[in-house]
């Protein structure tokens, strides 16, 4: 595979020519805004928009009265487009306004009277699980489900467990048992481009330009909530300025469509950064993770119980499937014969959580991997040794019964340890962390056209989120058809063009659409060989395609340009076009004595493995942690586009460090306290450490050319490796995420005040005593 | 943003005249506070704006007789941080200007705007206090200068009167015998786009025996304005500088801080960090004073 591939949209993006949804301008277009509740829980007594509607230049105010009275939601149908009588989080949409310009819009919003009766907010997920807790949804029992298998009870909108073996027996076999509790704050995907939606009606058809990672979900959401056929809804995604999951699922397309319909004009809504933090139902779950694991003197894990409580906010969104992933992550990529893992996704009056890049992965790996180090410490093993003795290998049984085939977990561990600098300065520490993730099989399809000059065009429903996955399709087509990738164009971004696709989520674009494309290209190549076979007087089996020609294998001079073959077909009245679909990949087997798998993930299909090592510097006086270096080794099967994969790994690492150290939302009474970029501190370019990356080549994936999903795994373990490096430098594990400077400082102080006695018991939630600061 | 009256004077005289006719007008220089604040909905733009970015007389750094320095109000942070004379003789101010926002902010943002914005977290505040800086204010009625520490009266509040324009920051000449070093440090959670959680500026004059002859210490972001902490200065003045003495001074500074609890840090953490950052600032200033000897 070529390492010098330049993605097709690169130049226009870096030169500022690329146009995004917020750049859209249509004749007569109005400016719109969604009015958010701004309070975590209240009865809506009434909305009086009469004064706003009377203001010249105001074209429409929309509330729940203007749309069909129906609930939607991907897992649980638990929300309305516009709040009817209750708002359940500060970002609940109460109304929307469209006016001729921003000033009129601001004036109109000031004239809308919304009468609220504030109610107490449920803000603690653990307390919300109690039978005596107030309900976030009084009518939860009457809600219908988006798919089967969701187990619910009051505020617990998804319960999942894995039960394997006999944990009591496993703990008896243990020589040491470690029991710990970890707490993670909410964090956000923070794409630099906030949500933006433009809607324009033509008769009873609507075209919506939107910042969606999943345009076909957006289309079905609009069709469902506005009660119209999908064929009347066209979703176009101009260039997308990042998503990281924050733009997955159907979000605000129907609100803006309803507004444009009532206004009788096209309407554009662009989110402020504040609204981007508060309103989309896609943030990383705040969670508590309780782990108890037994280990034998020879360093083998014998049993684990784990309980994960995910604060899923006001609406279920896609949390039930994330709860399943959470159970797999809490089990970890380890050989543990006896397991009991449970996860709950719990309603509270907060911004709904959902599938942000590798949902639940970074938080749970951060807990599990610190736990792994502590287990090792108890039996005298370092971070490398304890992992070496427990990581999954080919032939091992996974948490839910799947048998591992060739996997690169151990090789990743060795590579990461090799790559990280072995020397460290004063105050520095080194930590390792391992993780795993899955590839996501889904239906997917591609159309491929051979143009008359021998160039090719891909028509796909796959969505480019900025990662380059769709751009990389040109490289695959080029290699399959013996073309220069610059001669392959891609039609995408439009639900009217490509067929249904799951969208840019679940690391699935290349995994599924890539397979569809290889199939389509194979068909086209076969047709080209058929035509060439007569011209070259050679059997089709003896032909190959390269450098824009079909030629006889081993006889380079005997060839015919692809353009001539396309022309020949055209002369016979044939246009060269093909369609390919991704073959169904069955989910791995599952022994079934478990709830995991009822919704989506009975096991991890074509699992990917990672080990990352971190070297950090801890300022013991302030608690400020500086990440100096990360070494990353990933098993992605066979990497198809090294340049693209490298970008994903580097970006994921920096994102993970942000989750680990400086991000995190602070809440007070159901309100976010730092919904802006000054105090929600992303990592900057200046903070990025030196990053070394190696890909461990592993056979056996059912993905395209043996590739596996790449987008999500890079974010999973960097925060965990940083945590272990902090502990290496200071002797103290920090059990609150993010590990901000004040928290690290507090943990160090707590450790000193506990005397730093080795092996001293520490209450859950407090830093365990380590070997003492400064060692 | 609402419709505003907007003026763009070409020189200082026009600016003074406009301000006298529109005494309630806000003055905008780089716009990194006013315009950004308005766009983010923090506060609406004032009805009337006088944009002074074309008043070139207000731009630039010039030496004054006997070694003082006059920094025009429109001088950007980037120009201050890269000025060789500032780097040499007023290092703490160069430190502070190099920490403001991002490269873009530092090229657009001006020292005059930063001072007039009167944020308690203003990076340049501590350095201006330790250098006994004055600010020059001009109006149609004439000119006056005010000590910097009297100019900033509270968060977002200054002693500027209606119709007055801040034209320059003046750093008076100071005695450089024995050698003087200064430094500004802040506690930061990340390497760029940061705002001070705790900042400290220190100036020391250190003689050949390592005795501190003179000290100035000021704090940023731990009180309603940047503050000078005399009690901390007194702990090191006249003493031989070692870790014990410096730590005592740092603790005295922490005792004078009046920090708040907010999303950036708890008051307790801030107070503890004052001691850490002050000690580091003094040590760096001492190191620079000793370098100045060589």
Report helical residue fraction of chain B.
25-40%
Give the low-confidence spans of chain B: none
The CATH superfamily of one domain in chain B turns out to be CO dehydrogenase flavoprotein, C-terminal domain
| Oligomer designation | heterodimer
**What is the count of distinct domains of chain A?**
3
Query: Which descriptor suits the 3D outline of chain B?
Result: globular
> What is the CA-based Rg of chain A, rounded?
27 Å
Q: Strand fraction band of chain A? A: 15-25%
Total helices of chain A: the number is 18
- Which sequence of strands runs across the widest sheet of chain A? 3-5-1-12-9-10-11
Structural class of chain A: alpha+beta
Structural class of chain B: alpha+beta
Mean pLDDT of chain B: 93
Assign the CATH topology of one domain in chain B. Answer: Enolase-like, domain 1
Show unreliable segments of chain A. Answer: 756-775
* CATH homologous superfamily title of the largest domain in chain A: Aldehyde oxidase/xanthine dehydrogenase, molybdopterin binding domain
- Output the number of helix runs of chain B: 12
Instruction: State the name of the first-level CATH class of the largest domain in chain A.
Output: Alpha Beta
Number of strands of chain A: 29
Architecture of the largest domain in chain A in CATH? 2-Layer Sandwich
Averaged pLDDT of chain A = 94
């Amino acid at each position: 595979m070529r390492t010098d591939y330049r993605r097709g949209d690169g130049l226009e993006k870096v030169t500022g020519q690329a146009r995004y949804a917020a750049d859209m301008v249509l004749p007569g277009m109005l400016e719109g805004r969604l009015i958010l509740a701004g309070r975590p829980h209240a009865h809506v007594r009434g909305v009086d928009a009469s004064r706003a509607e009377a203001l010249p230049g105001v074209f429409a105010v929309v509330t729940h009265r203007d749309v069909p009275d129906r609930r939607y939601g991907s897992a649980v149908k638990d929300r309305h487009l516009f709040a009817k009588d209750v708002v359940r989080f500060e970002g609940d949409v109460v109304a929307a306004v469209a006016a001729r310009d921003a000033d009129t819009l601001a004036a109109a919003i000031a004239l809308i009277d919304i009468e609220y009766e504030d109610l107490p907010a449920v803000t603690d997920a653990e307390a919300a699980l109690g039978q005596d807790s107030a309900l976030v949804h009084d009518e939860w029992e009457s809600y219908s489900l988006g798919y089967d298998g969701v187990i619910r009870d009051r505020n617990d909108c998804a319960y999942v467990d894995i039960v394997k073996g006999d944990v009591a027996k496993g703990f008896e076999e243990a020589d040491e048992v470690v029991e710990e509790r970890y707490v993670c704050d909410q964090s956000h995907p923070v794409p630099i481009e906030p949500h933006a939606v433009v809607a324009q009606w033509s008769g009873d058809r609507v075209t919506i330009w939107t910042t969606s990672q999943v345009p076909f979900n957006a289309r079905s959401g609009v069709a469902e909530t506005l009660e119209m056929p999908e064929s009347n809804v066209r979703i176009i995604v101009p260039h997308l300025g990042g998503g990281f999951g924050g733009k997955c699922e159907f979000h605000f397309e129907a609100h803006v469509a309803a507004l444009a319909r009532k206004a009788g004009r096209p309407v554009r809504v662009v989110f402020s950064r504040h609204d981007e933090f508060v309103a989309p139902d896609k943030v990383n779950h705040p969670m508590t993770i309780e782990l108890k694991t037994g280990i034998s003197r020879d360093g083998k894990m014998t049993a684990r119980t784990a309980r994960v409580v995910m604060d899923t906010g006001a609406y279920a969104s896609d949390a039930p499937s994330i709860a399943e992933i959470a159970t797999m992550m809490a089990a970890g990529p380890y050989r543990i014969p006896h397991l009991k893992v449970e996860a709950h996704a719990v309603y509270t009056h907060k911004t709904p959580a959902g599938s942000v890049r590798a949902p639940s992965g970074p938080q749970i790996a951060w807990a599990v991997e610190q736990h792994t180090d502590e287990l090792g410490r108890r039996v005298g093993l370092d971070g490398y040794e304890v992992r070496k003795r427990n990581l999954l290998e080919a032939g091992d049984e996974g948490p839910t019964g799947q048998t591992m085939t060739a996997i690169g977990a151990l090789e990743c561990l060795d590579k990461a340890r090799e790559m990280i600098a072995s020397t460290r300065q004063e105050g520095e520490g080194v930590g390792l962390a391992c993780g795993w993730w899955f590839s996501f099989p889904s239906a997917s399809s591609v159309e491929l056209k051979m143009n008359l000059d021998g160039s090719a065009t891909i028509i796909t429903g796959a969505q480019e989120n900025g990662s380059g996955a769709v751009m990389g399709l040109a490289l695959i087509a080029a290699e399959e058809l013996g073309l220069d990738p610059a001669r392959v164009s891609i039609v995408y971004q439009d639900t009217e063009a490509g067929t249904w696709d799951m969208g840019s989520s679940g690391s699935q674009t290349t995994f599924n659409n890539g397979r569809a494309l290889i199939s389509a290209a194979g068909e086209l190549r076969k047709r080209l060989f058929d035509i060439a076979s007569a011209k070259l007087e050679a059997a089709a089996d003896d032909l190959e395609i390269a450098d824009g020609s079909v030629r006889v294998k081993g006889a380079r001079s005997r060839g015919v340009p692809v353009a001539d073959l396309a022309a020949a077909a055209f002369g016979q009245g044939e246009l060269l076009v093909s369609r390919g679909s991704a073959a169904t990949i069955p989910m791995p087997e599952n022994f079934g004595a478990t709830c995991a798998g009822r919704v989506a993930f009975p096991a991890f299909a074509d699992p990917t493995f990672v080990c990352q090592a971190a070297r950090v510097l801890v300022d013991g006086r302030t608690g400020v942690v500086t990440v100096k270096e990360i070494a990353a080794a990933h098993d992605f099967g066979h990497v198809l586009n090294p340049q693209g994969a490298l970008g994903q790994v580097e970006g994921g690492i920096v994102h993970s460090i942000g989750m680990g150290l400086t991000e995190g939302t602070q809440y007070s009474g159901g309100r976010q306290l730092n919904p802006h970029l000054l105090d929600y501190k992303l990592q900057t370019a200046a903070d990025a450490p030196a990053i070394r990356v190696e890909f461990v080549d592993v056979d056996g994936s059912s993905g395209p050319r043996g590739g596996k999903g790449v987008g999500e795994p890079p974010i999973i373990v960097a925060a965990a490796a940083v945590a272990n490096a902090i502990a290496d430098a200071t002797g103290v594990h920090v059990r609150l995420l993010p590990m901000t400077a004040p928290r690290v400082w507090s943990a160090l102080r707590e450790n000193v005040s506990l005397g730093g006695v080795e092996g001293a018991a520490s209450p859950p939630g407090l830093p365990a005593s380590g070997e003492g600061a400064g060692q | 943003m609402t419709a505003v009256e907007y003026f763009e004077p070409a020189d200082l005289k026009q600016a003074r005249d406009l301000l006298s006719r529109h005494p309630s007008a806000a003055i905008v220089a780089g716009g990194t506070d006013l315009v950004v604040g308005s766009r983010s909905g923090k506060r609406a733009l004032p009805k009337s704006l006088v944009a002074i970015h074309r008043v070139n007389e207000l731009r630039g750094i010039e030496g004054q007789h006997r070694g003082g320095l006059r920094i025009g109000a429109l001088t950007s942070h980037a120009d201050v941080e890269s000025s060789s004379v500032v780097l040499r003789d007023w290092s703490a101010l160069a430190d502070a200007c190099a920490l403001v926002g991002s490269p873009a902010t530092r090229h657009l943002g001006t020292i005059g705007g930063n001072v007039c914005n009167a944020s308690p977290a203003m990076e340049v505040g501590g350095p201006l206090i330790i250098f006994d800086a004055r600010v020059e204010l001009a109006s149609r009625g004439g000119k006056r200068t005010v000590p910097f520490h009297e100019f900033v009266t509270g968060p977002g509040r200054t002693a500027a009167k209606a119709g007055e324009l801040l034209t320059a920051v003046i750093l008076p000449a100071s005695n450089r015998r024995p050698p003087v070093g200064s430094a500004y440090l802040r506690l930061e959670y990340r390497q760029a786009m940061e705002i001070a959680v705790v900042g400290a500026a220190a100036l020391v004059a250190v003689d050949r025996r390592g005795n501190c002859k003179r000290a100035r210490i000021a704090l940023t972001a731990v009180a309603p304005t940047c503050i000078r902490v005399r009690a901390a200065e007194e702990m090191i003045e006249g003493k031989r500088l070692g870790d014990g003495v410096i730590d005592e001074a740092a603790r005295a500074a922490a005792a004078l801080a009046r920090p708040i609890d907010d999303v950036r840090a708890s008051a307790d953490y801030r107070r503890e960090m004052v001691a850490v950052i002050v000690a580091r600032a003094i040590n760096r200033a001492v190191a620079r004073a000793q370098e100045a000897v060589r």
